[in-house]
């Protein structure tokens, strides 16, 4: 089998309905699906193939691959001509994208470095803990196959190994990449994140597992595999151990099951009784600034208000609760209220769908929050 997982978080399809197939048969189907998924990374696959798959996903409107509103000119994609002076920046891409993507992440990294006059490290998520870069195809597929816990651990290894980040850094994430950064802040934060800009980040999770479009060339086989896994049950340990998106699936009608069997999100939210971790809160409170950017017409993240730390009310799949009225804010579960009361949270919005912001918006936002006033050239 030879296919790649750059499925990204596609548009929401109807929830999987319970199946009449016996549980053991479903387990076998899921194991087969995982075996197919495990065949995605082959030694002879190239950056070119990963790039083509990412391009196809963007054209189909199903990915977490960044698409800028304007094309980047050569001059906009150049690195600084002088030694960078600003606080270093770490970028974390979304699912289906990859750090060495020549059509997106690479020119965006260079553009930010030039405009903000700072060193920028775009993190790759390799499968082996000892490998910190040079794994384009793995980096692309691991946004899907690597658990969120493992992604956070690998992110921590990468930034810890970079001497240019030793004194701390600013962070900008794209979609699921923000969930990785948030997990890093709670669990590691060494070196520390100073300011954090979340571009359409899945901050409070999702209330529906995003699904794959079966009619997109190259995606049908992987979509069928995902369906088999999801049909087994999002909160089964098999799925939690093998499907990254299941780790931040927060079903407002099954919160007891989510807190009992879910991995990652319930723990960094400090919402599992007896498992609260004060370090998670203290690390989050240490941020100098948290900037939450929501896509006003987001069709990928349900609900889109998750990008502003809002969500559905407990027990409802339709009634929304704003960040400041939510129990995680009122009870200050992980430091969100403390940050906000210190005037360290800004909520912004962009028109259009998921990750469809403009170059000018991205650059102006990063310059506002990452560049000290005395460094800004007027």
Describe this structure in words.
With 378 residues, the chain is of the alpha/beta class. It is 36% helix and 10% strand. The chain is built from 14 helices and 8 strands. The strands form 2 sheets. Strands 2-1-3-4-5-8 form a 6-stranded parallel β-sheet, sandwiched between helices. The protein has a two-stranded antiparallel sheet with strand order 6-7. α1 (23-38) runs antiparallel to α7, α3 (105-116) crosses α14 (359-370) and α6 (176-187) packs across α11 (278-285). The longest helix has 16 residues, at 23-38. The termini are far apart. The relative contact order is 0.15. The model is unreliable at 1-22, 39-44, 69-77 and 374-378 (pLDDT under 50).
Radius of gyration: 20 Å
> Helix and strand string, N-terminal first?
HHEHEHHEHEHHHHHEEEHHEH
Portion in beta strands:
5-15%
Give the structural class: alpha/beta
